[in-house]
Amino acid sequence: MLTFTIRRLILAIPTLLFISLIIFLLLQLAPGDPMAQVPLTVPPEVKQKMREALGLGQPIHVQYLKWLVQVFWIEPQVLFDYLFGTDFSEGKLRVISWQTRSPVMDIIIQRLPQTLTVVGLSYIVGIIIAIPIGIYSAYRQYSLFDQAGTFITMIGFSIPPFFTGPLLIVIFSVQLGWFPSIYDTTHRVTDWESFVYQVKQMIMPVMVLALQTTAQISRFMRAAMLDNLKQDYVRTARAKGLSERVVVITHVLRNSMIPVVTVIALGVPGIFGGAIITEVVFKVNGIGAYLIDALFANDLPTVMTISFIFAILIVSFNLIADILYGILDPRIRYD
Amino acid sequence: MTDNEIKPIAALQDSVPSAPPRSQWKDVWDQFKHHKGALMGGSFLLFITLGVLFGDLIWQLDPKKLDIRAKDFRPIYTAIWDGDAKVGWNHPLGTDNLGRDHLAQIIAGGRTSMAVGWAAMILTMVIGTSIGVFAGYFRKLDGILMRFTDLVLSLPILPLLLVAVTLFRQPLRANFGPETGMFILIVGVIGVTSWMQTARIVRGDILAYKEREFVLAARAAGTTSKGIIFRHLLPNVMSPIMVSATLGLATAIITESALSFLGVGFPSDYPTWGKMLADAVPRMQEFPERVMLPGIAISLTVLSVNYLGDGLRDALDPRIRGR
After folding, report:
1. Do B165 and B116 meet the contact criterion of CB atoms below 8 Å apart?
2. CA atoms within 13 A on the CB side of A179
3. Which of the 8 DSSP states describes residue A100?
4. Phi and psi at residue B92, to the nearest 5°
5. Are A96 and A102 in contact (CB under 8 A)?
6. Burial category of A37 from C-beta neighbours within 10 Å (exposed 0-12, middle 13-18, buried 19 and up)
7. Which of B158, B284, B306 sits opposite A154 (nearest CB)?
């Protein structure tokens, strides 16, 4: 297992390099001039100097290598300095946003908590709702509950978040006036009332994202339970007189959780991608909304860094899923 | 000796089959008929496809025509609970803030959304199937193609889609005109970023089928690789391809609407469902129906496609057929 983990970790490096190269080349090929916003009165030779100052005059491979050094060498040093108060990164050039002229990573760190609270909470809520639904609809296959569950998951698959979002806003903010339609990220939780407000403003974005999660995970849970309920060991467990509760919860559920846990791990990066739209709908200023802003402002270093963070998330959660699968299921041996 | 000639028992006496032979597709249809959701989904999809294709022959208003005097009409059904609402039979679903007719826009927008969905789905299937077939059939290509598929699978798709559409819209719009350019771009990026699941499924099936006896027989009879692939393997993997095609259609429609919603889709005077929804969001307090109608159109279409896929999956699986 350890050798497998190490091998996969080493394999992840070329994967990440390849992804970064693709993102980099895509942005390089793209027409679009960071100097487009500079007034026309600025003479061309000054513009050329500004371009060189942004590192744009150099050949592509030099730019790529410099970006790699910035992301993989200088940024970790900054993090290290921040954590331990050292000064390794003094005077080194970080990835600078063309939009705000400040380090991209700093803005991302500022915005990450908003994304994490909304996305993370919605994922947890989605899983908590999905697993009992999956268990029960598999246990009573083709019952009314199962049919309704199937229908609701179908709806969850089919209604896109950019429709459920406005739909919830129309119903709960406009008609009923229960929840605010805009997520206020400057809100601080200090006492009970502000906590209640925080909960209220989180309900809608969390529910929109949780609907997607619930639909997917309850399907997987149901399928995994159905597979296991037909196995011989279940008949044995029943034959030796165990109660239905013990059979289902202890025997079947634990075995069915193996594929579901990996699906849960694999779904984490996807939910971050889906959060882009939800953040735009509810005006949460997380990293998804930041990506959209940066795209419209033609701020390529920011776009590249955020896309690359998404890629890192995908690669690492794929790795986590594989390792979890090996740990949870003793029948799986990777060696 | 001729008297006691042995006669076969009655069950073995028939010389012709008691029932006419059944074709595979008839079996599939018989099973499909039992899936009510799939039938409804299929008929709704047919209805909406015909509606957006031929709807403008019946409802002949120009969706782009501005009629500022007739702006902000409410849908005709608002009159039921609000007698003072500004409604009129000449605009049954109302008009927007520039007086463009909503029904005509839904028809025109649906045509774009469906066209993008179908084109992107077909492109996805072509790419996915060819990569799957090549990887499954030619052992030398298998490793490299599947590693490539894994790599593409770990790309952050939505950010890349957004980046590609934002950054490449200018040159394509300059070369092909604003509408065609965007169409090519959106179909292209959706196709290029969503073929991976199909490729994996097709590869798996091809790997299994190419070891079967009928392929061996075909090869022994001197069939070329091309012949084996097109004559023997592809017809057998048609059912998984069809199922993932329905999934692909659903995702393509949603992706196009998402891009339009985020404001990187078609040009602003060109209606699509996602775009209508996005345009309506700022004024949804006064005019919730402008959000609801395109949103319901997208959701119902995708829902019907998903149900169709569900039914197809059941109908095409010979193990559960006949139950």
Report:
1. no
2. 23
3. T
4. -60, -30
5. yes
6. exposed
7. B306
Determine the topology of domain B102-316 in CATH.
MetI-like fold (1.10.3720)
Q: Do B264 and A157 touch (CB under 8 A)?
A: no
**Alpha helix (H) residue ranges in chain A:** 2-29, 44-53, 60-69, 75-84, 104-139, 144-158, 161-168, 192-229, 232-239, 244-245, 253-282, 287-296, 300-328
Beta-bridge partners for A96: A103
Give chain B positions within 8 Å (CB) of A23. Answer: 160, 163
Residues 6 or more apart whose Cβ sits within 8 Å of residue A176: none
Q: Which ranges of B138-263 would DSSP assign to H, the alpha helix?
A: 139-153, 157-176, 178-193, 196-209, 213-220, 225-227, 234-236, 238-261
Contact B167 A315 (CB under 8 A): no
The DSSP bridge partners found for residue B311 are: none
For A330, list phi and psi in degrees, rounded to 5.
-65, -15
Q: Is the complex ipTM more than 0.85? A: no
Cβ contacts of B18 within 8 Å, gap of 6 or more: none
- Domain locations along chain B: 102-316
Retrieve residue B23's tokens.
Answer: 């074709």
Q: Angle CA(B113)–CA(B114)–CA(B118) in degrees, nearest 5?
A: 120
Cβ atoms of B256 and B298 closer than 8 Å: no
pTM, two decimals, is 0.83
What are the pLDDT tens digits along chain A (335 aa)? 788 888 888 888 888 888 888 888 887 776 656 666 667 777 778 877 777 776 666 777 787 888 888 877 777 777 777 777 777 666 667 777 777 778 888 888 888 888 888 888 889 999 999 999 999 988 888 889 988 988 888 888 888 888 888 888 888 887 787 887 777 777 777 788 888 888 888 888 888 888 888 888 998 899 889 888 888 999 999 999 999 888 998 889 988 888 898 888 888 887 887 788 888 888 888 888 888 888 887 778 888 888 888 888 888 888 888 888 888 877 766 65
CA distance B256 to B39: 26
Determine contact, residues B169/B185, Cβ cutoff 8 Å.
yes
Residue in this structure with the two tokens 């974005």, named with its chain if needed: A205
> CA-CA distance, B199 to B244, in Å (whole number)?
10
How near does any CA of chain B get to the CA of A307, in Å? 6
> With an 8 Å Cβ cutoff, are B168 and A291 in contact?
no
| Of B151, B171, B262, Cβ closest to residue A292 | B262
Distance CA B282, CA B140 (A): 55
Polymer length of chain B? 323
Residue A38 per-residue DSSP state? S
In sign, the C-alpha dihedral spanning A215, A218, A224, A230 is negative
